[in-house]
Amino acid sequence: MDKATLIGLALGVVLLFWGMLGSADFQVFISISSVLITGGGTIAATMISFRFEQVMKAFQLFQIAMKEKLPSSQEVISVLVSLAEKARKEGLLALEEESERFEDPFFRKGIQLVVDGTDPQLVKSILETELLFLEERHKLGRSIFETMGTFAPAFGLIGTLIGLVAMLVNLDDPKKVGPGMAVALLTTLYGAIIANLFCLPVANKLKLRSQEEILLKEVIIEGILSIQAGDNPRIVEEKLKSFFAPQVREAFERERETGERVITLRREAGG
How does it sit in the membrane (predicted)? Predict the structure, then answer.
């Protein structure tokens, strides 16, 4: 799993437990009925808002985003520059063997289109269309977690209102008012935790991950078109570096000077 997500979740849970244990008996913070009202209500409302397969797909996207590591910008530039060098020396058809070694289907498809002699405008149109729909899928997955983050506090409030009604029924018994009020407020607490420690942070992480992936794919499109146009590898490199911040360009320069090019974007031959 992504280290920042794992550390953030663990830190949030530890701080919550620390706060609860330091303020009262931990047992008072446990209420199964409050969990069911808040958690179950949030899931139910999300299911009503989206199709079942869309909700399942969003959780799959979350798992993929947390487990899979994107290639670094240096890695992508290195691979594209090496392909530009090969194309200049041996021609575009020499890239066909290389394309079969790419793990990224988007990268493999782009190179294969070039090898097949597809018109540059058509190559650009096909790849940009694929990128557009990728972005739309990411938006849908993110919106599901944002929706859950909206519903969770709302169901927490609903649970609190239910608890308050039950408490008012026993208003003539002062001994039941305090405990009843505490239980009623638990659903609001649960709703706030679900929204702010899980749903909304996950939506933000998916948004960041999507932006990073789309930027890399835009670099890939530019690199592939530049290779197809027959640009000098040095020109290809300068074009691609312009997509990134100065720190990334400096890192790439240092990597090139030390000869430590990372090319795990491609499978090793026979792998």
Answer: Multi-pass membrane protein
Rounded to the nearest angstrom, the gap between the alpha carbon of residue 75 and the centroid of all alpha carbons in its chain is 20
pTM, full prediction: 0.80
Which residues lie below 8 Å from residue 174, measured CB to CB, with a gap of 6+?
A: none
Secondary structure element (H or E) that encloses residue 231, with its range: none
DSSP string, 101-155: TBS-HHHHHHHHHHHTT--HHHHHHHHHHHHHHHHHHHHHHHHHHHHHHHHHHHH
Q: 18: which 2 tokens?
A: 């620390």
Which is more confident, 119 or 268? 119
How many C-beta atoms lie closer than 10 Å to residue 194's C-beta? 22
266: helix, strand or coil: strand
Give the separation between CA 85 and CA 91, rounded to whole angstroms. Answer: 9
Residue 117, pLDDT above cutoff 70: yes
Predicted confidence (pLDDT) per residue in 252-268, tens digit: 777 666 655 444 455 44
Distance (Å, whole) CA 246 – CA 182: 54
Whole-angstrom CA distances from 261 to 11, 237, 252 are 35, 14, 9
pLDDT at residue 68, as a whole number: 66
The yes-or-no verdict on residue 180 having pLDDT over 80 is no
Alpha carbon distances (Å) from 128 to 124, 174, 251: 6, 67, 28
Total Cβ atoms within 10 A of residue 59: 13
Beta-carbon neighbour count of residue 17 at 10 Å?
Answer: 12
CA angle 146, 15, 164 (to 5 degrees): 65
Integer Cα distance of 256 and 208 in angstroms: 28
How far apart CA 182 and CA 201 sit, in angstroms, is 27
